[in-house]
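Suppose you are handed only these lines of text.
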Amino acid sequence: MLCLGIEATAHTFGVGIAAADGRMLANVKKTYLPKIGSGLVPREARDHHRRVADGLIADALAAADCTMEDIDVLSFSQGPGLPPCLHVGKDVVTRLAKQYKKSIVPVNHCIAHIEIGRQQTGLGDPMTVYVSGANTQVIGFANGRYRVFGETQDIGIGNALDKLGRTLGLPFPAGPEIENLAKKGSWTTLPYSVKGMDLAFSGILTAAEKKQGSKENVCFSFQETTFAMVTEVTERAVAHTGKEAVLLTGGVAANKRLQKMLQTMCTERGARFAVVPAPYAMDNGAMIAWTGLIMHKKTKPGTLTILPRQRTDDVPVTWR
Ligand code: AMP
Ligand code: MG
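From them, the structure of the protein bound to magnesium ion can be written out as follows.
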């Protein structure tokens, strides 16, 4: 049983092919890069995705050494995401479904990050820290849904890093370069913004952008402050739910300092900790394929309409 999945929520157009025995047979992608000094322009991202779609599908089939006839089911990221990008994923998968007579499983992007993370790390029931460009959520399974225990009230932590990077004149994506600069920095005070179980980054971002002096110090302090906030909320979520593991995923999961903070917290609490391997932590098609595969037959056919604001906790989890 094979599922071909398409990811197209924002910068990345990805195609993955997952097999029922847990092998990821293909995971190819291309990422739209905004012009230097600019953020994502949705129409440009859409045009990028349209341009690369057919080539990437062919690449994925070649990597998996199969044809469309061998594929049993299709999936795509239905939301949350940018409407012009989501439409490309939906249009491509609808066309393939008609042409090859396949059924389609719509997949929630955030849930796909969790499911591929569980599959890759073997953590059965973790508290998931999902930190990416657009999203920052602490998510745990309870009573048939993935519940959001804490989340950003404004922008995603990756977006905050990228915006800070733009102000500091760093190329996009700025996360890796900020991580490097931070290694040579020391402390300068920034506001700390945890509200109950939620987080806010835009005030800290504004304060950081106004700081005079060394880039290194701003990067160091921005990381220390925002990562401590994420760790605080995660620890409280783990304490309240009694979960015994923490899973770190999303593009920002690559950051060694964030990994270290969460690892330390988990060690102190006797919880397990794992980071999703990079190709499956950033936006990718394999996670959509894998989630489509495990949802297939366990969910009723629903709407294929894109859902740009679909929440993680909107989706009944019938496959666990
Ligand atoms: P995603 O939206 O999941 O594809 O992740 C993209 C985000 O990850 C961007 O905002 C990047 O700046 C961020 N990112 C990538 N590598 C790192 C890193 N080493 N440290 C912090 N953020 C990172
Ligand atoms: Mg993502």
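What can we learn from it? The two ends are 19 Å apart (CA to CA). DSSP finds ten helices and twelve strands in the chain.
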